[in-house]
Amino acid sequence: xxxxxxxxxxxxxxxxxxxxxxxxxxxxxxxxxxxxxxxxxxxxxxxxxxxxxxxxxxxxxxxxxxxxxxxxxxxxxxxxxxxxxxxxxxxxxxxxxxxxxxxxxxxxxxxxxxxxxxxxxxxxxxxxxxxxxxxxxxxxxxxxxxxxxxxxxxxxxxxxxxxxxxxxxxxxxxxxxxxxxxxxxxxxxxxxxxxxxxxxxxxxxxxxxxxxxxxxxxxxxxxxxxxxxxxxxxxxxxxxxxxxxxxxxxxxxxxxxxxxxxxxxxxxxxxxxxxxxxxxxxxxxxxxxxxxxxxxxxxxxxxxxxxxxxxxxxxxxxxxxx
Length: 322
Hints:
Layout: H1 3-22, E1 28-32, H2 39-55, E2 59-63, H3 70-77, E3 85-89, H4 92-99, E4 111-127, H5 135-144, E5 150-153, H6 159-171, E6 176-179, H7 183-192, E7 197-201, H8 202-210, E8 214-219, E9 245-253, H9 258-271, H10 275-283, H11 296-317
Parallel strand pairs: 1-2, 1-3, 5-6
Antiparallel strand pairs: 3-9, 4-7, 4-8, 4-9
């Protein structure tokens, strides 16, 4: 190899090496597609602290709320691919293609995958004075009064909306659904008795359940969860096979440099093992995913399978948004 060619090769490699070693040189923004105070925001803010410690740089949370989170997703999809704008999104990333007729992004082609973060259980909860002592009484009552009771959710595409769709399908009963602009206002109205029940993530409901501010009729996991050991699963109470979790994944814009991707993956994996992060998630009724799932390949595989899973469910329900 001539000296000229060697010089050109070295000049081409050095900038990338320097960039990867230096990254990040400024705060990193994690965009969350939902309002502050909601379950994904709670997870994201705690992840940002743990991830920032690993990156040795501040990770700023930016809430960009919209229906189904599509505005935030599009923002990151079209952001500069330099590792300074990331996305934390939940299962809604897989339902958006079926829910929306027009999207300004493609979940499968417009992102680099960092990895899964957590799979959060759901809980079926009702206002504190709801006239049912257990799941059997609850199902009997709501089926008999399906035109009167109200099912709250945090908006089209939100986890609570998706869980509600599955619940109605499972018991073959439709209810008047009340969409809100976020989980916080939905929960506030449930606490105030303005709506009757909802299905939402443990990161939003565990504190309310423990404080006795809402009635809980079950969790959506296959086994009981450590944070709510006295709450039976819906499956063990007769709703066989009704298990649903809200997985969350982290993404970067397409064409983010491989060296930066690698640093994001390794530091996020380390953040998921942070004792403080694990402790806080346990209090919220969940835990980080195992290390073999905190990978780009695992997130990509799950996203593909979930898109295929949810498309027929949403089509059958006839739920669409412009």
